[in-house]
Design brief:
about 20% helix, about 200 residues, 3 helices, five-stranded antiparallel sheet, alpha+beta, binds manganese (II) ion
Length: about 200
């Protein structure tokens, strides 16, 4: 993936116990103007689930300049005739200094302000499957030191160790999660920790 200049980023990904392939996909990209990051979890398992989540990742790769709404609409078009996915997308616009994100289905997003205030996104139920659906996009100003956590449902967000997130760097956040929950793998797990600097 691309070098990132504005974003500090660390990733943890692990396939479900006994599974060779991970059904979760993620992608991130930073351009002059924006940073985009997405996690998709294909419904079901195996080849077809993977095909869907890959199709969505290609959209994010090809159109980082689009707004969240347009990105999700494009993803939806790419899913016509395919299996559905749950999807989380975060986009940071460097010019307007804003972030926006949307989560459809069980992709968690937690934002930690530079002062340590945490806000948790409540994902919309359902999934994306090639037909129009209602979206909810959350937006705000980005500030230096702000952190974003995005994760698939393999991460139990009620157990997520949030106490030290404010002071820990992104690598340490990932390490800490691994130490605590690296052994329990009931589902594919993807966790991405990001910091805007
Ligand atoms: Mn899952």
């Amino acid at each position: 993936m691309d070098e990132t200049k504005h974003m500090n980023l660390a990733v943890y990904q692990k396939a479900k116990k006994g599974n060779y392939y991970c059904g979760d996909s993620y992608f991130y990209k930073e351009t002059e103007d924006a940073f985009v990051c997405a996690i998709a979890d294909g419904l079901g398992s195996g080849e077809m689930a993977r095909e869907s989540s890959k199709a969505v990742m290609e959209i994010v790769e090809d159109y980082p300049e689009l707004t969240i709404e347009s990105l999700v609409n494009k993803c939806n078009e790419a899913l016509v005739g395919k299996r559905g996915v749950v999807l989380g997308i975060l986009r940071i616009d460097f010019r307007s200094q804003t972030y926006s994100y949307s989560s459809i289905g069980n992709i968690g997003v937690i934002i930690v302000s530079a002062e340590g205030k945490k806000s948790r996104n409540i994902p919309l139920a359902g999934y994306l499957a090639g037909f129009p659906r209602k979206l909810r996009v959350s937006q705000g100003k980005v500030e230096e030191g702000m952190k974003f956590l995005m994760f698939s449902d393999g991460v139990n967000d009620r157990r997520f160790p949030l106490k030290r997130v404010h002071t820990d760097g992104v690598d340490r956040i990932i390490e800490h999660y691994k130490e605590l929950y690296g052994q329990s793998r009931d589902d594919d797990t993807t966790l991405i920790a990001m910091e805007y600097e």
